[in-house]
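User: Can you recover a sequence for this backbone? Please restate the input before giving your answer.

Assistant: Of course. Working from this structure:
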């Protein structure tokens, strides 16, 4: 956990939930493949409807042949800080699935929900290993689909950059001001006994 993490939970939870956050100042160091695979492995164990496991992860690690292409698929703002990340991932979900007793694939209601659970596991595993994962919706969906050959029955969910936390001073001033773990709405605003 960063030493200046101001987060306090209102109810007791494992500290790992407060330690995970989304910085933008990354050191740019190389990520060992074993680390990347451990992080992806955690995502693999997420629950999903009918155990359909609709998540797919397209990845590139820093300085390998795919890195520049992947970086170029982020919007300009996200490129400006994600360029010092160590791994870039696009999370995709399959919108159709196989269910028992039906021969052809059927639409999945929960493919995005399932892929979201997998992303959550991925981010927590990264954090447990001393890395940070930062989700990004500021990505070029159309170019990702064509340039990475994403099939038609897949939804492009989000980009993810993983890196090692570096000093704030790596960032332009405006971003330095935003570089700390954020608070949350109180439980009473998000959970309702018996209905809305
Ligand atoms: C699906 C998703 C998309 C996001 N898109 C972006 C983005 O395009 N650019 C960015 O700087 N941060 C992005 N974020 C980071 C969020 O702003 C951040 O997770 C949120 O403010 C909560 O902060 P925390 O992750 O540090 O707890 C995204 C996060 C998620 C989960």
């Amino acid at each position: 956990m960063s030493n200046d993490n101001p987060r306090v939970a209102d109810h007791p939870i494992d500290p790992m939930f407060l330690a995970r956050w989304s910085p933008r100042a990354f050191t740019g160091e190389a990520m060992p493949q074993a680390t990347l695979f451990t992080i992806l492995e955690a995502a693999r164990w997420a629950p999903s409807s009918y155990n359909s496991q609709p998540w797919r992860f397209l990845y590139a690690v820093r300085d390998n042949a795919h890195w520049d292409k992947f970086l170029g698929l982020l919007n300009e703002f996200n490129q400006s800080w994600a360029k010092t990340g160590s791994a870039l991932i696009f999370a995709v979900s399959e919108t159709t699935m196989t269910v028992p007793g039906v021969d052809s694939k059927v639409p999945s209601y929960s493919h995005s929900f399932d892929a979201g659970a997998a992303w959550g596991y991925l981010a927590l595993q990264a954090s447990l290993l001393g890395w940070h994962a930062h989700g990004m919706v500021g990505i070029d969906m159309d170019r990702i689909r064509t340039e990475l050959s994403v099939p038609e029955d897949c939804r492009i969910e989000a980009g993810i950059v993983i890196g090692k936390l570096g000093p704030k001073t790596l960032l332009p001033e405006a971003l330095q001001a935003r570089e700390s773990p954020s608070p949350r709405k109180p439980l009473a605003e998000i959970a309702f006994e018996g209905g809305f």
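That completes the design. Residues 111-128 form the longest helix (18 residues).
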